[in-house]
Amino acid sequence: MNKQRWLSQSFFTFFFTWGIFIPYWTGWLVDAKQLTVSQASIIMGCGLLARAVSNLFIFPSLSKYMHNKQLMTLLTTGALIIVLLYIPSSTFAFLLIVTVLFSMVYPAIQSVIESGAAILVQQGHIHYGKSRSYGSLGFIVAVLIISMLTGVFGDTIIFWSMVVGLIGILLMQQLETPQELLVVPTKEQRAKSLSMKKLWAYKSLLIVLLVVILLQGSHASYYNYAYIYLGDLHVNPFYMGMILNIAVICEILYFMKADTLFKGWRSSSLLLLAASGSSVRWLLIYLFPNVWVFIASQTLHALSFALAHFAFINYISKNLPKEQIPNAQGLYSALAMGLSTAILTFLGGYLYEITPGLAFLAMLICTIPAIGLILLTRTKYQY
């Protein structure tokens, strides 16, 4: 079978649903379930914390007893069942419970795919960036399709599109899966990865993990306030989606060329470039509150997000044994993609009310220390 194509399809189908969940789910809760914005924000915030807990404990534990395909089928089936519980739910309490449950199961699907990708890169000679670009493409396609469908059918189409997307992921599991991902960990392998404490033996991993936690967390203000910021710059709402999609398009272009463009680069060099690009990005938005500068800064998403993400996957593929990859991926998903963003969202929101640009400038408290940490450790730990 074509492993590259299989991985590309897996990324596309998941990120298509991610393109429904991330931009539209809060709005769906407000419009379809008649919640206030603050109530929906509390629910989604609790969901983000549940996601961190799930990726930190549940996903790594399950991966010790199930192979990739079994885990994907279990999580996707669980997510599909839970999402249907939204139909009878109408009160704040029930919607909170359903969202927490959904957030503990659904985002973990991404961790399974990313772990599988790292294993295929390690054992199957797969180009990660090439396949990951299809994930970004799926995100863009979903955003564009849902924006059109909501104009015709209203916000209820958001929910049913998620249901259809999850069914699509489930159907993907009926296809042939690479043999490398059909191996159930042995008792000996489970013993090797019984605890995440085993990861601490890899000293450079702690540094790389801390750097990506800082770099991915620095996107908190962008993820939460970029749309509002463009409104403050008096941008026509018709163009906002196009402007925000520039970042994802640059992300796609980067992932398509990452495997060859940075072939032979050390992980520390990749992370240093990512941290530098991220610092420039947030500084530009603060210094020049102008829509054209904001558009130009969108191109730096290829460095601030995509390069940092690629560097981490590249690092664990080259430096960790197969049985430790799910543990590392769980930590990354929980801390870098969840918890750090949640914490910095509170800081960004406070500063945005003072001056919008401050919310972006504050993200330098992550990127500058990341640069310093890399420069201080890259020679000693040779990562």
Automatic annotation (TrEMBL):
<feature type="transmembrane region" description="Helical">
    <location>
        <begin position="358"/>
        <end position="377"/>
    </location>
</feature>
<keyword id="KW-0813">Transport</keyword>
<feature type="transmembrane region" description="Helical">
    <location>
        <begin position="199"/>
        <end position="218"/>
    </location>
</feature>
<feature type="domain" description="Major facilitator superfamily associated">
    <location>
        <begin position="6"/>
        <end position="360"/>
    </location>
</feature>
<dbReference type="Pfam" id="PF12832">
    <property type="entry name" value="MFS_1_like"/>
</dbReference>
<dbReference type="InterPro" id="IPR024989">
    <property type="entry name" value="MFS_assoc_dom"/>
</dbReference>
<keyword id="KW-1133">Transmembrane helix</keyword>
<keyword id="KW-0812">Transmembrane</keyword>
<keyword id="KW-0472">Membrane</keyword>
<feature type="transmembrane region" description="Helical">
    <location>
        <begin position="268"/>
        <end position="288"/>
    </location>
</feature>
<feature type="transmembrane region" description="Helical">
    <location>
        <begin position="12"/>
        <end position="30"/>
    </location>
</feature>
<keyword id="KW-1003">Cell membrane</keyword>
<protein>
    <submittedName>
        <fullName>3-phenylpropionic acid transporter</fullName>
    </submittedName>
</protein>
<dbReference type="InterPro" id="IPR026032">
    <property type="entry name" value="HcaT-like"/>
</dbReference>
<feature type="transmembrane region" description="Helical">
    <location>
        <begin position="238"/>
        <end position="256"/>
    </location>
</feature>
<dbReference type="InterPro" id="IPR036259">
    <property type="entry name" value="MFS_trans_sf"/>
</dbReference>
<keyword id="KW-0997">Cell inner membrane</keyword>
<feature type="transmembrane region" description="Helical">
    <location>
        <begin position="42"/>
        <end position="59"/>
    </location>
</feature>
<feature type="transmembrane region" description="Helical">
    <location>
        <begin position="294"/>
        <end position="317"/>
    </location>
</feature>
<feature type="transmembrane region" description="Helical">
    <location>
        <begin position="157"/>
        <end position="175"/>
    </location>
</feature>
<feature type="transmembrane region" description="Helical">
    <location>
        <begin position="329"/>
        <end position="352"/>
    </location>
</feature>
